[in-house]
Predict the structure.
Amino acid sequence: MNDDNTIFVSNKRSVVSFVLAAVTMFNRGAELITFKARGKAITRAIDSVEVLRNKFMTDINPKNITIGIGTETYENADENGNKDGTKTALSTIEIIVRRPKQVVKNETT
């Protein structure tokens, strides 16, 4: 997977900024784009894909979307970086959006 076509979704930016990043990537010739998010940003990633699909690129249908979910486990540490042996699980999501092949129509005059 090419990281150039990956959008890391966070809660620090608006949904529209992620959507516009995806539109720009598709307009530059990307065949697929991956949205990645963890924790509370998962809902923002889903919202971004839905806005992209429903408002900006209506030719993308659910068959062109692949979703992967998982959990990352981290060892907890205090403010000094000392690990205490406990672990925390953090949910992750990866949404791959494929743009359908454009059919070129030859016009004969």
